[in-house]
């Protein structure tokens, strides 16, 4: 239902939606938070912590046991890659272990990417 509403909101929104809202992305991140942490003190958990993910090499969070596919992905996350991954993880990193079926509107993808972009790389975290 919420997805439908978000889709509607997207249709009704003015074209000036470009200033995507990192705050909205923070709310959207709830659907990732079962597996991922981000922000001060974030740790890899069920999934890798995502601080500084924009500009971070894929499969490189210390202490996380990535799939071979993700370890070998061989690229650095930028906004385009992230958005594509959220739309279809397997299309970007075939054989990766992230299983995520949350349907997302394009607007939510944009908000999530804006939010993640706003979360800096971590200071070294104590184990
Ligand atoms: C059910 C658990 C789960 C959910 C929900 C989930 N992820 Fe993941 N995610 C993972 C796992 C596990 C990996 C590591 C995959 C691998 O090693 O192949 C991963 C990997 C990633 C990576 C690559 C990280 C890196 O260090 O290269 C990104 C980016 C990511 N997830 C973003 C998200 C976002 C954003 C959401 C919410 C829309 C989300 N994930 C939802 C489990 C999850």
From TrEMBL:
Transmembrane segments: none annotated. Keywords: Electron transport, Heme, Iron, Metal-binding, Signal, Transport. Gene3D superfamilies: Cytochrome c-like domain. The keyword Transferase does not apply. PROSITE patterns: CYTC. It comes from the Bacteria. One of its GO terms (molecular function) is heme binding. InterPro entries: Cyt_c-like_dom (IPR009056), Cyt_c-like_dom_sf (IPR036909), Cyt_c_1A/1B (IPR002327). The keyword Ribosomal protein does not apply. Residues 1-19 form the signal peptide. Residues 20-120 form the Cytochrome c domain. This is Cytochrome c. It comes from Massilia yuzhufengensis.
């Amino acid at each position: 239902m919420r997805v439908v509403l978000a889709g509607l909101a997207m249709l009704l929104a003015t074209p000036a939606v470009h200033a995507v809202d990192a705050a909205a992305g923070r709310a959207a991140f709830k659907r990732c938070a079962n597996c991922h942490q981000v922000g001060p003190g974030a740790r890899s958990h069920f999934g890798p912590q995502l601080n500084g993910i924009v500009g971070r090499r894929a499969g490189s969070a210390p202490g996380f046991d990535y799939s071979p596919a993700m370890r070998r992905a061989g690229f650095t996350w930028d906004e385009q890659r992230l958005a594509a991954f959220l739309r279809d993880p397997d299309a970007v990193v075939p054989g990766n272990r992230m299983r995520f079926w949350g349907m997302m509107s394009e607007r939510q993808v944009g908000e999530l990417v804006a939010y993640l972009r706003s979360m800096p790389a971590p200071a070294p975290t104590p184990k």
